[in-house]
Amino acid sequence: LRVYGAGLLSSVAELKHAVAASDKIKRFDPEVTVHEECIITAFQNHYYYTDSFQEATEKMRAFANTIQRPFGVRYNPYTQSVEVLTNAQKIAAIVSELRGDLCIVSNALRKIHEHDETVDVESIEKMLQSGLQLNHDEE
């Protein structure tokens, strides 16, 4: 069991309360959770779970994509901040950064493959290609 939270949930007392209150534990659904009151001075009314941190991340990304706004956002792990993407220059800077990262990944993959031919380069290439396909049907 891994528990992520802030404020009181990071305390032992609320963690014990959350685990003991099985009737207050619900499957994480951002569409529902967003309407829940966030209590900062007492224990929460409900707690939410997923099978993995990745599942929670994917659900949050999908939910964020439904929010109508005239800009995009991106988490920058280097600065540990959220960047607001409001113009083509900011997006071009991210594309340049991604190109650099992909060069690093490509070089590392090539070096690893030189020493270990069992590395499945094709599946990694397919994963990259499928990740780069943009879905314009949602617009």
UniProtKB/TrEMBL annotation:
It comes from the Eukaryota. The keyword Nucleotide-binding does not apply. Residues 1-113 form the Biopterin-dependent aromatic amino acid hydroxylase family profile domain. Transmembrane segments: none annotated. GO terms for biological process: aromatic amino acid metabolic process. The keyword Iron applies. It holds the Pfam family Biopterin_H. Its cofactor is Fe(2+). GO terms for cellular component: neuron projection. One of its GO terms (molecular function) is tryptophan 5-monooxygenase activity. Coiled coil: none annotated. Keywords: Iron, Metal-binding, Monooxygenase, Oxidoreductase. Belongs to the biopterin-dependent aromatic amino acid hydroxylase family. This is Biopterin-dependent aromatic amino acid hydroxylase family profile domain-containing protein. It comes from Homalodisca liturata.
